[in-house]
Write a structure and sequence with these properties.
alpha+beta; 5 helices; 6 strands; 31% helix; globular
Length: 110
């Protein structure tokens, strides 16, 4: 995370995401089909900037991709590195409507 902040001086926060293996992806999909909410997935752009975090499995993938060894689904780990200014400002940032709707900081239920 620190290395990423060094590479991109404009980034204020860094957080890891891990590529889901086939077993993890299928577990996420089974949980969601059963109405269980747990892990958070993330999509990001080509510059590694987060575009969206969701309790749903994003991006949507067809059955063909569920069997692939290298999925395009990434699980968010929930650990953060902040630059000093972002760290001190973070408590004053409002919770956005999508963040509230998704319940991203909730641990989930099943």
């Amino acid at each position: 995370m620190i290395a990423e902040l060094k590479v991109d001086p404009s980034a204020e926060i860094s957080t890891p995401v891990l590529r889901c293996d086939r077993a993890t992806l299928n577990s996420f999909l089974r949980d969601r089909n059963a109405g269980c909410v747990g892990g958070t997935t993330s999509v990001f752009d080509v510059n590694k900037r987060a575009m969206y975090f969701s309790k749903e499995v994003v991006p949507f993938t067809s059955e063909v991709f569920h069997a692939a060894a290298d999925t395009l689904v990434f699980r968010h780990v929930g650990f953060y590195a902040y630059r000093p200014d972002a760290f001190s400002d973070h408590p004053s940032w409002p919770v956005g409507p999508l963040e509230q709707l998704e319940g991203l900081e909730n641990y989930g239920s099943c």
